[in-house]
Structure formats: structure tokens, C-alpha cells
Amino acid sequence: MWISSRFFVILLLLNLDNTCSEPFEAHLRGPGFVMEPPGRVEFSNSSGGWLDCSASGSPQPTVDWVHADGSAVTEIHGVRRVLRNGTLVLMPFAAAAYHQDVHNTIYRCIASNSVGRIVSRDVQVRAVVAQAYKVDVEVLSAARGCTAILRCVVPTFVKELVRVVSWVHEPAIYIYPSLQGDGKFHLLPTGELLIHNLQESDESQSFRCRSMHRLTRQVVVSSPTRLRINSHRGIISPSVVEHTAHVQVSQDEGAVLLCVAQGCPSPEYSWFTHNGAGPLPVLSGPRVRLLGPILAIEAVTGEDSGVYKCTAGNVGGEASAELRLTVATPIQVEISPNVLSVHMGGTAEFRCLVTSNGSPVGMQNILWYKDGRQLPSSGRVEDTLVVPRVSRENRGMYQCVVRRPEGDTFQATAELQLGDAPPVLLYSFIEQTLQPGPAVSLKCSAAGNPTPQISWTLDGFPLPSNGRFMIGQYITVHGDVISHVNISHVMVEDGGEYACIAENRAGRVQHAARLNIYGLPYIRLIPKVTAVSGETLNLKCPVAGYPIEEIHWERGGRELPDDIRQRVQPDGSLTISPVQKNSDSGVYTCWARNKQGHSARRSGEVTVIVPPSIEPFAFQEGLAEGMRTRTVCGVSRGDPPLKLIWLKDGDPLPDLLGANVTMLDQYSSLLSIPSLSATHSGEYTCVAKNPAAEIKYTALLQVKVPPRWIVEPVDANVERNRHIMLHCQAQGVPTPSIVWKKATGSKSGEYEEVRERPFTKLLGNGSLLLQHVKEDREGFYLCQANNGIGTGIGKVIQLKVNSSPYFSSTSRSVMVKKGDTALLQCAVSGDKPINIVWMRSGKNTLNPSTNYKISVKQEATPDGVSAELQIRTVDATDSGPYFCRASNLYGNDQQLVQLQVQEPPLPPSVLEAAMISSRSVNIKWQPKTLGTGDVTKYIVEFREADHSLPPALFVDQWQQIEVKDPPHFNAMIENLKPATRYAFRVIAEGSAGRSAPSQELIVRTEPQRPAGPPLSLSARPLSSTELLISWVAPLPELRHGDIQGYNVGYKLSSSGNTAYNFTSVSGDGDGGNGELLLSGLAKFARYTVVVQAFNQVGPGPLSEPTAAQTMEDVPSRPPEDVRCAALSSQSLQVSWQPPPIYHTNGLLQGYKLIFEPIIDDIQPSKDEVESRKTTALTMVLTGLRKYTNYSIQVLAHTRMGDGVVSKPLFCHSEEDVPEAPADIKVVSSSSQSLYISWLPPNEPNGVITKYSLYTRVVNGREELNNEKRSLPSQQAYYEAKGLHPHMEYQFWVTASTRVGEGKSSRVSSQITTNRIPARIISFGGPVVRPWRSTVTLPCTAVGKPKREWFKSDVALRQGGLHNSQLLDSGDLIISSLQLADGGNYSCQVDNGIGTDRLTHTLIVQVPPTAPVLYVTSATSSSILMHWKCGFTGNAPITGYTLFYRRANGNTDEMQLSRHASSHELKGLMCGSTYQIHLSAQNKVGTSPTSTILHVRTQGQSPGHPASTALLAPNSTSLLVRLHSWPDNGCPLLYFVLQYRAVTDDPDAEWVLVSNALKPQRRIVVNNLQPSTLYQLRMEAHNVAGISQAEFNFVTLTKDGDPPPPEIMHRGRSGQTTVIFANINLLIPTIAAVSGMFCTIIMIIVCYRHKQSQIQKESLENRANSEAAQRERYYATIHKVSMQNNDKIPETSEDISPYATFQLSEAGGNMSQPHHGGPANTLLHSFMYHERALAEGCSSPPPAASKNRRRHSRKTEPESEESESDQDQLTSSRTESSNQHEGKIKHSIIYHGAQSSTSSDLSPMSEQKSLPRRGRSRYHHQQYQFSTNTTPRHHNSNKMNNNTTSNTNTTATNTTATPSTSSNSNKILSPRGGNLKSISSTFKSQDSIQCHIPTLVKSPSISTQQQKQFHKQQLQNSSTNNSQHSSSNPNSSSLKQQQPLLITPKLHQLEANGQELLGLDGIGNSPLVACMPPSSQFRPIPHKSIMPAHEPPHHHNHSQQSHPHQQQQHQHPGTLLNPSTAMLSSKFFTAPTLPK
User: Fold this and answer.
1) For residues 526 and 2, what is the distance between their CA atoms, to the nearest angstrom?
2) Three-state secondary-structure class, residue 1905
3) What one-character DSSP code corresponds to residue 683?
4) Which of 648, 1001, 1491, 1584 has the most C-beta neighbours closer than 10 Å?
């Protein structure tokens, strides 16, 4: 038989039980109460009662009633009935028929169905037998003016059922209960009647009580009762005679708390609540009314619960009582979840949620019920019920019942459902083997949820339908299914595999076992089998008989399997997976055979069907009502027959839907809806069926419907204090949201959204519930409904509040002095019109027409009416109650106004302070009134006493406290401000009013720690290690004293430490602002800063922390773990790790790799130091030298520049094949031998391992033989012997390394001959040796020649040189080499047959000469220097050593890189002189040190301040403002301060205040005498020196007034004496004055001399001056802006070649520079203003600014600008800089001709100090200089004859007159930075213009030229020094200076139509090129270089007046420094300068 994984054969189940053939049971729903009976039912025997109970569920539950013990309630004829609808009726009965168990018992309602049952709350039923009763009145009398209480006394047996409905005021005035009363009568909700303000007239009135029985509605009235008034005399303290100790009301009801006291006079009531931390007074409000002894609360809430205290007091004392108010809030009970589905065996958990008004309620008494029966306490945790291991018995209904202490109960229900459980077989049959004939029974039992169904199969098909088979099935009480198969007479064909299958919606389970019947093989009929394509098909052969030996399958005559998809199982079944339609359809045959050979065969057909597949479809978005839509369901695959149907929400399409379904073809169906509506929304499913499968695809259609009204809002009216519901409901798709808004003004105005708040509830259905409506709720309301479809809908309605009159308070008291006019006012609110009537004592209407003392006023207000009653000239008879009664259409109300006429007592006296602290003052006084009873209390008033405001402004500023204990006459005033002056006064108050205030007492409280932190704390970074902290003092009211200083705390934000590092800063004392510079911080680190202020008591609170980050800096550590590996002969791979994170000091921008080859050259042809940048941690260097050792260094760089470079790492590139040998020689050594020699390769590229000598014999053009010979690497020659004569031999050589053989040398040929000419086999060329060593110059020759040696063409003889020796071998040996031994050595050989010559160039390496060191700038803590390398000694410089020391200090040295040409010394002392010199090293030795430079850092010893700015005397103290003391650029270290009184004794002793006073803003000197003349002596110390000053001052008088005139006169007569203790200031001052005097004289002489030439050149100068004004240039090398990630210029190539500067003509206010020492050689850069530079060439040059400290302020143009733009000035530099703090370098001038020979070139001192408020942070000077047309050596006879070489001559006449030259502009040129000074002569209107030429690297020069230059320098320096010393008496100061000053010439050449300006050579323009100092680069001059031996040309003054002669005379180039290298031959271009 055949079985498929999906069965499509209809199974016929015969003889099955009907219970199993039913479908799965539908979902059931447990019962739930629709109407639950109330918890308490009372009725009378005459009326009877009934209890309603109804429930819902599925199926519909039945309702039953039970007693408390669970017994059923039965009907009792005539007494009790149970109706069909569940109502329990208790019928009326006679008194004799009363039964306790029927009429006074507990009933419960039970609702039950098949799911479970639930029980209602307990219903307490009480039947009352009507009885007659009567009521009496109890009167609690009171005194006149007090309140009387009338109580209705009801008998105890009916007290619970009888309530007071009203009182009757005889004869017919009814008084009803209210919360407020009418002012006179007040009936409480509890039934008591209060009568206020008793008068004698009230005794004649009678009252009756009306009561009603709640059940019988019977009204009983008491007999009338009269009042009595107690007569009291004197003062009686109050006593509480009646109060409600406990009031219990329900939520939203009104509550009345009663507290009646008696006393004389009438007591006053105060109410307090004790619900908080302390007693709080109860204030009248919208819901709370204070009615004297009554506290009325409307609409109570849970928050109103608690303890209240009423206090009644009068002059005799006070009494109090506590009252408790309990508000019963309804609770809601809910079980979560209310429906829970759990699988069998799982765990169920229910939680009982108890809430009140949406908030959880605390622990309650909770009981759990299951199907109406109480559960035990096990399994419950507080409010949670846990049901473990759920079984069938646990399903049903669960209830949570909450029972409150009050007795009422609440309950909620939940249902526990069993979840779907797959079937489980509980019993199954086993395999059996039988003989034919007996009966067989097979049985299966299964359980599951829902109850499973069991079916049977035989070999996968239904059992045979014959009479021998019987199937039975039934369900047990536990829900288990038992099924069995009975075979009455078993036969052979009944054998096979029987299976029972249990199935429900949760799953399926199967059991199979064989029934074997002995017999021959038999195969049952095989029906047609349908398989599904793509699935697995299991074909089982339905064979019977036993035993069976084998089973086989065939198809088409072939035995299976014949395909990889087919497999025959061991049991004989055939499995095909997956099934294919075309391949697997057909007829299959199975045959079976036993051991005896008997067999059976049977065939069957298999049909394969493909299941359908639906193409996805969807409805379009945004469909709205009225639109059309359509969609197509198409089947993309599947065999017919196909059936397509449509479903909506799982059901067939209803006819009313209006949808059309059209079959387009048999594979597609069209669904169209012509007009969409809301009903069309839903899920549409297309179902495709065929015999193989049923496939569904669902799409969602959502029709969007705009909102429409269900309940449209309408206008509404509501009475005040009532509730109203505004309904608004709308529908649409999607569901619209409802929003309520209220108009803020008119109907058409703005609307604000109404939100949920107390008494405003937004319900879920859209309705708006307004509770306790007041007038503020009145207005227009807008209800809007919107769901995003369309614009939405809205409706505006109007809500009107109909308000009866009401008062904000029910009573008020007015006290008036006797004789004054009393004003009784009442303001009533409510709807108009309002009528107001004034009444006296509640009954007498006041009319102005009958009482002349009164007048009535009334005016309308926005909320109602304001009325006023005036009573003139009041007296005691006017005292009493007055009622303001208001009425309108909606009701009436009245207000009690109590008038008291009193007289005030006398004010207290003798007010004084008994105790004073920081926060409190205890004052005492004495009363003036003799009788203490006249004063009821004292009022102490106090306020802050501020003298700056008039007292009239403090009328409303008095604060007051009341003292109600008169005998003590003192009071403690607390909560005062510390350190504050207060004014106190006391007022006595009695029953007649208040007295006048007493005299004021002024008291100052003690100081206290500051209570407020400093404000506006900010931190601003100034550098990478500095933060500027600034703050503002705390608020004045929080200082609590004089602020003496601040503690500034800081810490690293990233550190886990919570503690701050604190430093103190002194304060002003008056709370001024403060700032502090934090230095020494970590770089690029984030700090958290706090500040606290402190006064004389202690520190205050910390401020809010602020964070700031220091600036970035360059990394302070190099990259780590630098490694190198050779990749090839020309590439290296370098890797590294970043520097430690704490040393990066910023965000790493990348890395720079610096590498150079280690080459022992005499002078590298080029600087092979290379650098490459990367952002990675590895780099591959390519293009390197082969087999070369490289020095590699790595540095990291940030935005601020390059960091520390790593230590050199040496790495060798790999070997490669060598280059060709440099040269080869072949000479004849005999007739049959040739001598071959060669030179090693210039580039060996490795270690030479061998040489290969190749030999080739050539006879004409024929090659005879070829030979190769290997030679050792040490051998560079070979002699080939045994050769054939007269044959041509050719030789070439190759070198080999371990890599391989290199290139071959050139081929050298030689013919063997008998004549041997003289030939040299050695090689010449350069020979490099260090000095003091020995060198051997070889000269090996053949042919036995005669040798001769020459040095520079001079023949050498044996012994001709003292250190040379000629060997017999021809070699020349020179020992003890010196520099002079260098040169060309030639060896010449001759043997008569031939001659040969060889030349060796000997280069001797010596130590280098001293470098030329000069300083370019200095600050207060650093010195920037550059240097020029001198003669290198024919060896590369290996490094420099810098020596420096402070004056009188130890010498420090520093090793610098050989590539360095500048260095900045940092961390120097301010205002100190340093000695600096430098030496250079090469591999031979160390050079002499350079000239020692004496450089002084900026800054001076402290100055002295003005006495008015420094001192501020007081009466007994002196305020010294230390911050006003000038530091002159060096921070102050400490002060020494002492003083003494000025007396007649000159030796009076000084009083030392401090000898080490740290710098601070100010200090106060105390303990001085008033009106006394003092002398103050102070010393200020800084690093640069000391300054001392003495001051006279006079203290003020004791009252703070100015001192007497005679003392002031003495003080003025004593002038302030300033003593400068620093001698360093005196000498420069004297020198400066002398220098200025000499300069003025020289200027006057020069000025007169110039006047003679001014007139001749006026026309030309006017034109030149106009052109000069248009072209202004500023010479500087400035720091490039860091914007746009520009890099800082690192070399001179980064600087613009067109930067120019202009030196303005000096005015009469020229400032002389200060002179340095004789060896203070400094070069300087010109400063400029960046603002002027940015404006272009049309901007005027900046005028010279003044030094603020040394020169007086003069008025001149742009002086303000030059002083205000100090921070914009930059300094020149050519190296990458880390000086980003904006330090200003020296600004230097060059003097004119009159000072050209003097040595007064010195730096201008930079004026810099630490930042202080009110001062410029940086100061510096700018100077101008003038030019003179008259040269110093005007006479040509006085001209030096050696102008070119005389380096000390600094004045050269280069000025051409207008008649001889068309260009009169002059250009000043400091060449190469080596000039000491530059001078020239100019016309008075001329300005100097200097162009910077293009900068290039300097090429190298030959060794011979270097030696000549070095030698020439020594000769010229000795000669010129002697000449100059004789001609110039001032030259002695320049003898030690190596840099030489040469007057250059400028050439003007034509090239491409442009004028080329070049240095040196011929030119008709006297322009001189100007070049700023540069260490590594030199200007490009003319290519012609003056030979060292060429004599200098002489030119005189006459040449200047003959331009033609000047052009014809060739001037050779002039070297600026004989030690420098050759200069480039390129020119730079520039347009012709203006004339």
C-alpha cells in the first residue's frame, strides 16, 4: 500500500462514535456580572425589598442565590421568592413574621455556566420593623455674642435610620442643611443647628426639629424650644464645649468640622491641618470655607483626610481641639490578566490590582476564589495568585475579593483557559504474529486539548469495509479518548501495518505496529495515489502473508531504484524525494516473495500534481470614501482544476458589500469595488485550491473616512459648583482623535488646548467632564475631531455658569478707633443683577434716610458688585455684627462683618539688644502702659537699614513678628542676614488698636561664612599649560561679610579623584571681580575648576564647576617602538607606535619620517636629508641608495607643530649587483705580458666578493679566443704573461657581490710589443685624509721610467718638503698632514719611449672654523638665535654644541643637530644677561667657539606707582593696592612693607608688616591711630632687581572725616621719595640721556648741510615722494595664519619672495635705541602692522609708537593704533615654531650714515609683563631713522683704497645725482644675515625700499676655492683691522666680530624685456638688494665670483659723477662672508622701481 506525506485520499471512518465526529468545540466565555447586587440592602417590613443580579457569558450563565455558608436559597411562600431573571424578592411581612435568617442575614449571588462560576459580594440584608418614635431638642446655651447649639435628640433604636431634614424657626421659617449657612443660622449636615452672635432678642424665639425615617419616609417634629443666654462678667478664657472628633464622608461629598467654644469676650477661631511636617493654617479657598467655629469643605478628596486642629482664643487665653476627617474613596479591583490561557503543565499567575482614583492602594485584605469556592492561602504572595502545573481541574473562573475594614467588599473576575495541547498517546497496541482464524482487538488511548480525534489506517489506507472489522470510540470523564479496532475472524489478507492517529488543532501523533498472519504472500489492491510535486513520496507495498523474504519495485520493466532520488527502504517501501511531475508519474509495480519461492505482484498508478502559487497583490494607499479600487489575484503556478475564491476578514464576501468578482481566465480573478465606503475596510484573502494544496494570500484594504459627528456638542448651562458633561463623539477611519480647546478671549480669538487636571477629566469617548464648575470655566469651547483625512471637523459651543451670589469669605472683622469713620466693605460675585442689603444683627435693615451716621455706596465690578457701608464717628454702641446680604435670580448669600471700636495703647520704650548673632537678634523693651491687660500682644517690626535710601521708601518694607506673651517684654528675631544692619521697633496692640511705633534700634548682625558661590565662573586657555580663571563676586546678600579672598580649585576632569587642588587669591574686600592664571598644567588636558569665596569667618560654598581645556601643543615624546626592515636594495620599511597618549598634547595630525644616508663624503654634493609625512604607523621608503646605512628618525606632529624626534635608528638597505668598475688600464709590461689594473666601482652596492677579468684576443676583425678569470676582491690588478707577440688583446672587468655579477667596465685593448713605453698603472683622483695623518700617493709604472713629482706644477725634490718622502717604488709619502698640504700632486714618468702623467688631488680634513652666531630676538624668558656655518674643514659637520650661562652662573651646554641653523633657548630668567657661544664638530675635531654674545632677556626691576593709586587710608587702617605696583615685565616675587608714625624723632622705629608679602590685589594695615601722619616704606622684588619707595599718608578722623589742615600740610610737605636700589637702571638711564643729547646735535648739523641740496632736488623729490606714498612695503618674515590648515613656514622657501618693507623718514621725535655691550652683536627683523598690510599698498606706514614706561606720551598720527595692535605683531623665523603664545621679538633699526661706524646696534628691549587688568599685555618699541645725503667720507681722497675687502668700512656713497642717474631710490641690503650695520646716504624725502630676492639652496664649491676663501679671510681680517683701527677710532669694539660688512653693487640687466636686479657686477642703478637673515639659504647673486687672488679694484669719488666710466669699469662680485659657499647664479625679477 502507498502512503504520501500529504494525504489526498478521502479517509472513510466507519462505525465511529458520534462524539468523535463532531468538529472541534468553539471558544467558551466564562460568566461575568452585568448587575451585581449592592453590599447593603435595608427595607421596612411594610415595603419589602428586592435584590437584582444578572450576568453574561457563553453559554448564557444561570443565576442562583446562596447563603453565607454556601447553602442554596429556596423560596418561602409569602416571604421570599427567586425570579427567573435572577432577582431575589423579599416580600412585605407582618412584624410577627420576622425571621432572623431571612430578614437579617447575608446573601450571595452565583452566576455559573460550563466554563465556571462566580460569586457576588456579600449582601447584608436588614429588614426593619416600623416603630413609633419622638424627638427632643437639646440646647447648648452660650453667652452674648457667642454661638449656641441646638441638637435634635433621636431615640437610640432608630437613630441610624432617622436624619434631620430641617429646623423650623417659629413661626414658619424653615432652615435647611448647608455647608455655609446664612451668617446667623447654620444647619449642619449632621443635624445640629448653630445660632451665631447671640443677642438678648434671640431669647424670645423658639425652634423645632424636623426628622425623617429613611425607610418609612415618616416625618417627626419635636416640640418648640427657646434659647437661653448665659450672662458672664469679666474675662473668661475659652473652652471647647462641642466638637466633632471624627467625621467620615465619601469622596466628592461635603464635610463640616464643628468646633464650638465658649468664653468672654467671644473667642476667635483659627484652623490648622496636621497632615504635613508641622501645623499649617487652613486658608479659605474655592472649596474651603472658614465660618468661625465651622470648617466647611466642598467636594472632599483623599488629600483632605487627616487631623485638623481648631483653636479658639480671646484675651483670657485659648483652647483647642483635634478633629479627624476620614474620606472614604471608592476603590477599583481588577485582575491582570482577566483572561489567561496556559498549556497543561504550565504555571498560571494572576495579580489583583487595587486602585483608587487611578492610584495604587496599600495592603488590603485579599481573598481568592475559584469557581465560587475560597482558595487556601498557599500559592499566594500578597496580591498575586500562582497556579503551578496547570491541569484540567484548574481551568475555570477566579475571583479576587477585597474586604475593607469598613465592611464593604469589592471583587473582580478572571478566566483561566487551557491552552492548546497536542495529543499524547496514553495507550497503544503492540506487534502480533498469529495463525489465521482467531479474533484480534487493537486499542489506542490519547489525551489533549481540545479533545483529540483518533483515526485508523492499514498500510496508510482506511481499514477494509467488511463485516469482520468493527471500530469503537468513547471519551472518559477526564477528557481522554479511547478507540479500538476489533477483527472477528482474522485472515491472511488482514495482515499489514495498522496505525492509530490522534489529531487536534494543536498537533498530531501516530502509532503503528504490524499484525502478521501466517500464509502465502498476498498484495492488496493498490488504488490510485496522488503525489505533490516537490514533496517526498513514500510508497509502501501493501503486502500480506508471513513470513516475507523480499520486496522489490519495478517501473517500466526496470527494477528500482534507477535514479538518485529513489531509495528502497529496508522495510520494502519506496521513497522518492523530491517528486517531479514529468519523471515520476506512471505505473509502479511491487512484488513480494517468501523463502519457498512463492510470490505475488500488484501494480498501481501514481499521479503528480503541482500545488498552486499566488502572485502577491496589494491595494493602493490613500483610498478614501467614494473612490474605486480593483486588484487581481493571479495563480502563477499550479495544476488544474483550480478554484479561486475571495474572502473578507476570513469569511466569504457578503452580498451587501457591493464587490464584484470577475474571472479573467482560469488562472486569475479580478476583485473590483465601484464605490468605497468605510464598510469595505478589512483584509481580503484570495484562496487558490487544487487537489494538491490550498494557498491563501491576504492584502489589507483601508478606506480612509473623514470624521463625522456621532454626538455633536451643543451649548450648555450649569450652576456654579455643579458638574457638567460636554459630549463630543466622532467616527472615521482611522479613528479620529478628539481635542477640546477653550477660547482665551472672544469666540473668534485664540484657543488653548484643555488638558487633564483636577476637576477636569477628558474621557475616552471624547466627552469633557467639568467638576465643581466656577466662573473661570465659562466661555467658548471648541471640540475638534481629526484623523488626518481632510481638514477635520470642529464645533464651538458656549458654556454659561449660572452663579448665585457668593462671597470669597463668609465673615470678616473691622476694627476702628473710636471717633473714626468705619468702612464696612463686601465684594460679592455672581450673575447680575445683584441686589445688596445691609442689615444690623441679621434682622434690622440699615437705611441712610433714617440714620444720619451711615451712607451706602455700591458699584459694579467685572465679577459682580462691590458695596460699602460708612459709619461716621463710631463709638462703642456701633460695635456688633453687620450683614451684607446679596440676592439674584439664582439664590442669595450673606457675609458677616464684625465691627469693633477700640482705642490703641501707648508705644513701648527702652528698646535694646540683649544678644546679637549672625542670624538672630534678641531684643527687649519696657512697656509704658501700667495695666498689662490693656496690651494683648506686641508687634516687633524690623527691616534692613540702608543709609543710601530715604526712610520714606521703607514704609512697606517692615517685617513683623507677634509676641503674645506680654510679661516677658522680649523677642527673638531669627532668619536674619549676616553682617547686615537692621532697624527694629516695637508696637503695642490692644483691644482698641495699635500704638505708635517705638524709637528705632539699629543693630548689625555678626558675619557668617558666605552662603553664595562666586558667579560667572569662566576658564579661558592662554597656552598649552595655562588657564585664565575669572569670576564675579557672590551676590551681595549672600556674602555675609567682607570677601577677603577666593579659593580656586582645579583638577583633571578625566581623573577619578574627586578632590580639587586649591590655591588662594586675595580679594578686594569689597567683593570685586577676580581672576587667576593657572600655569604648569598638563597640555591639551581638560580641567574642572571651582571657586569659593571666603571672609573673616570662613569659606563659602563651591561654585558650579566649569570645564576648560588647555591649548594644543607639540608632542613631548617621540613615537615609540620604531623599527626598520630592509625590503630591497632601494627600499626600507619603517614602523612605529604612537607616543604615549599623555604626551601627545593634542590631536595627532600625522607623522614625519626623517632619514638620511650615512656617507663619509668630504662635502655632500647635496643635502640628502629627506622627510616624508604620513598618517599611518608604517611607511615604505623607496628610491634609496643601494646597500647604504640610513639614519631614520620619526616624530609626531599636531596642529601646533612638530614634536620630539626619536633617537636615530640605523638601517641598512640590502645588497645589489655592483656598478661597473670606475676605470681600467692595460699597459705592456714586457713583449709577452700585459699589466691590467682597475678601479673599484664607485657604487659597489654591497661587499665585493670577486672580480672577473675577461680577455679577448683579436686578430683584425676576427676573435681568436675568449677567456674569463676570477680574481679575489682585494686584488685590483693582474699581469697577463705568456702572450703572443704583436697580437691585440682586449680586457674588461666586472665586480660581483653575493647578489650577482655587475656591469662591465669599458673595454681596454693593447697590442703586445717589444718596445715598452713608460706608463703609469696607478690611478689618480681625489685623496681624502684627516690632518696630522700620513698619506701615500702611489705612482707605479712600467718600462723602468724616470719619475718626477710636482705640486701645483712645482717640482718636488727629495727632502724638498719637510714632511714628505719619495720611495724607490715611486710612491710619495706625506706625514703630519696639515691644511696647507692639500692640493694637486702630479707624478710624471719618462723612459725615452713614452711618457705618462698622473695627478692626485689631496684633500686634508681639518676641524671646522667657528660658526657665526647671532641673535634675532629675545623675550622675557627665551632667546632665539641663528648661526652660519664657517669652513667645514673638508668634512661634513656632525653637530653643534651650544654653551650658555647666566651672569655669575654655571655654564650649561646643549647638543644640537648638524642640520640645525637656529635654536630658541627657553625657560630663561626674566631681565637677566646671558653669555652664549657655539662650536661645531666634524669627524676630525671641534671648532673654536664663536664670539661670546651677551644677550639680556626682556624685563626690568620693578617700577614705582603713584601714591594715590597705591594707598587708600581710613581712620584706623590703610588699604594698600599692591596690584598697582608696575612689574616692568618681570613678575613680582614678594614685597617688604613697614611703616612708622612721623614724629620729631628721626630715629623712630619702623613697624614691620611683612618681609615676604606675596603679590595680591590689596592688603589692609590695621591698628593705626586716627588723624596721624605716617610714613610707609615698601620694597618690590622680582628676578631683575629691587625697587624701593617711601610714601607719606594721613589717616582720617575717628568719624571718617578728612584730617585737620595742619596735618594735611605736614603730609604734603613730605614729598614721596623713591629710591632705586637697582644700579642696572641708573647706568642705562644716564647712557640713554647722553646718547639722545649727542644724537640731537648730530641731527642739527646734518639738517643744515642738507638744506643746500633740498632746493635743487625739490621737483624730483616731489615726484618721488608721491610715488613712494603709493608703494609702501613692509619687510618682515611673519608667521603665516593657521587658518585652512596652513602649515607654519619651515624654511625660507615657504616665504613669499615679494615681501617688502619701507622705512619711513624720521621725524623730530626719533627715539634712540639702547646700546648693548661691545660683543652684543644682534641682527634684527623689521616689524609691521598686520592691519596696514591687509589694506594694501595704499595704506600709510605705521608711525613710531612710544614706550609707555620710558618715554612720555606724545601726540602723533596713528599712535593709538600702534599701541592697540600689539598682539598683531609677529616675529620673523625660518624654522617651524612652537611659539604660538604671541611673544614679540626685538624690533631693530639700521642707522644712517652718521652712525654707520659706531657699534650701537642693539636690540630694543621688549616690554612684556604678565597680564593685568587695565593694562596692555605686551609693549614694545618701534623706531624710525633718517637718512642723510652727505656721506661721512665725502672727500674722495679719504676713501679707503681697498673698498672691496675692507669689511669695517660701512659708509659708501651710492647716491647718484639727478643729472647722472635716472634712478634715485636706495635699497638697503643686509646680506645673509652677517652685517653688523648698514648705512647709506639718502635725500631727505627718500624712503628706503628693500626687496627680498628669491631664495634657493646654496651649491657646494670646490675644496680649492674653499681653502682660498679661508686663507683670504684670515689675511683680510688682519690687514683691515689694522687699517681700520688707524682710520676709525671707534673700531675697537668691532675687532672681535667675525661677520664682515661689504658694500654690494647692484646690476641692472635686460632679459626678456624686464629689468633684472642682480647683486655684484655692472649696473647703472645704485639699488642695493636687501636680504633678511637666513641660516640655510642664501640670496641669488650674479654668477661671477671674484677669484681669491684677484686684486681688489680701486674706485674713488670721481667715478660716481661719471656714469660712463662707472659702467665701463667691471666690478667683480663681492663675497659677504669668505667662509660661505658659492652662491647661485640665478637672478630674481622685479618691475622697475618708481623714480
Assistant:
1) 7
2) helix
3) E
4) 1584
Q: How far apart are CA 1046 and CA 143, in angstroms?
A: 68
pLDDT tens string 1418-1440: 998 999 999 999 899 999 898 99
What was the pLDDT predicted at 1211? 94
- What are the pLDDT digits (tens) for 1102-1118? 999 999 999 999 999 99
Q: What are phi and psi of 168, to 5 degrees?
A: -110, 120
CA angle 1216, 1217, 1221 (to 5 degrees): 130
Q: Where are the alpha helices (DSSP H) in 104-185?
A: none
Please report, as a single letter, which amino acid is at residue 1550: W
**pTM (2 d.p.):** 0.41
| CA torsion angle 97 99 103 106 (round to 10) | -170
- Per the CB < 8 A criterion, the answer to whether 311 and 260 are in contact is no
Alpha carbons 1386 and 875: distance in angstroms, whole number: 149
| Tally of CB atoms within 10 A around 1242 | 11
42: its cell numbers = 435595608
Strand pairing class (255-264; 268-273): unpaired
Which residues on neighbouring strands pair with residue 707, listed in sequence order?
none
791 Cβ contact list (under 8 Å, min separation 6): none
Residue 1735 three-state SS: helix
**Residue 1685 phi, psi (nearest 5):** 60, 30
pLDDT digit string, tens, across residues 246-287:
988 888 888 888 898 887 777 888 999 987 777 888 888 778
Tell me the pLDDT tens digit for each residue of 991-1014. Answer: 677 788 998 898 888 898 898 999
Q: Which residues contact 140 (CB under 8 A, 6 or more apart)?
A: 148, 149, 150, 151, 241, 242, 260
* 1605, containing H or E segment: helix 1605-1613
Terminal alpha carbon distance of the chain? 124
Written as nine digits, the cell of 800 is 454659561
Q: Which of 1930, 1790, 1789 is nearest to 1849 (CA)?
A: 1930
The continuous run of DSSP H or E covering 1029 comes out as strand 1027-1032
In contact, 1691 and 1894? CB cutoff 8 Å: no
Q: What sign does the dihedral 1778-1780-1781-1787 (CA atoms) show?
A: positive
Pull the grid cell for residue 1740: 600709510
3-state helix, strand, coil in the chain (%, to 5): 10, 45, 50
Position 1270 pLDDT exceeds 50: yes
Per-residue model confidence as pLDDT tens digits over 82-101 = 888 889 999 999 888 888 88
Contact 308, 274 (CB under 8 A): yes
Measured distance CA(950)–CA(295) in Å, rounded: 45
* Long-range pairs for 135-139: beta carbons < 8 A, 24 or more residues apart: 135/162, 135/209, 135/211, 135/220, 135/221, 135/222, 136/222, 136/223, 137/207, 137/208, 137/209, 137/222, 137/223, 137/225, 139/225, 139/227, 139/228
Quote the CA–CA distance of 587 and 603 in Å, as a whole number.
Answer: 7
CA distances from 1838 to 966, 1175, 1832, 1841, 2009 (A): 116, 65, 10, 9, 21
Exposure of 1580 in the CB half-sphere (CA atoms within 13 A): 27
Taking the CB of residue 813, how many other CB atoms lie within 10 A of it?
11
Q: Which residues of 1512-1545 are buried (b: 16+ CB within 10 A; e: fewer)?
A: ebebeebbbbbbbbbbbbbebeebbbbbeebeee
| Rounded CA Rg of the chain | 61
Q: Cell 573673616 identifies what position?
A: 1096
Nearest to 1032 by CA among 1044, 1017, 1045, 1021: 1017
What number is the average pLDDT over the span 1525-1544?
A: 90
